[in-house]
C-alpha cells in the first residue's frame, strides 16, 4: 500500500488522474481477461478519483517461489502476449533509469548503460513492464492473478523475463551471497522455466534485459532505501549480454 492505494472492506482502491487513466486501466484488464489471463477488472469511482478492484486473497511475493514451479509463475505472460490492447506505448527499458541519473552518477555506470543502449531493441507484443512475484497473487484455488497493469507497453517478452530474473537475483530472500553468482543463476532458471512452457526466447536479448533490469533495481534500492550493495557489486560484474 502507498499514498495512491488503499483498502476499504473487500475492495481495493487506486487513485487515478481522471476518466482517461481509469478507462485505460479498465481496457487493459478487460482485454487481458478476454485473452484468458486472470486479473481483477476495475470499476471507475469518479467521486473518489479512483478505480476499485475486488480484493484477491492469497499469497504474493517471493514466497511463491517455494509454493509453485517457476514455469507456473511465468505462465501469466502467455495470455498477456495474446492480449489485443491497442494504443500502448513502446516500452522504454531506460525510462526509470534516466530519471535517477544525476551529476554524481559514476562514469562506470554511464559506460555500462552506453554499452547496453548500443544493442538493438524491437517491440513485438504486449509486456507487463514491471513483472515480478509481487505482481502476482496465488489464491486458495491455485489460480494465479496478475495485477498492477499500469506499466503495460509494447515490447519483447524478454523485457518481462529479464525483470523477473533481476528481481529474484536482488531480493534478500532469493539472492545469492554474491551477485556474480545469483544473477546468472536466476537468469538460467528463468530461461529454463520459459522453455518448459514451450515458448521462444532470444537468449541474447533476454540477457540484455537482465543487465538493464538489475541496473534499475540497483538504482531504486540505493535511492529508496540507501542500499548500495547491489550497486557496488555491479561495478565489477561483467555484462551477461556480452
From TrEMBL:
<feature type="domain" description="Aminoglycoside phosphotransferase">
    <location>
        <begin position="106"/>
        <end position="179"/>
    </location>
</feature>
<dbReference type="InterPro" id="IPR011009">
    <property type="entry name" value="Kinase-like_dom_sf"/>
</dbReference>
<protein>
    <submittedName>
        <fullName>Phosphotransferase</fullName>
    </submittedName>
</protein>
<dbReference type="InterPro" id="IPR002575">
    <property type="entry name" value="Aminoglycoside_PTrfase"/>
</dbReference>
<dbReference type="GO" id="GO:0016740">
    <property type="term" value="F:transferase activity"/>
</dbReference>
<keyword id="KW-0808">Transferase</keyword>
<dbReference type="Pfam" id="PF01636">
    <property type="entry name" value="APH"/>
</dbReference>
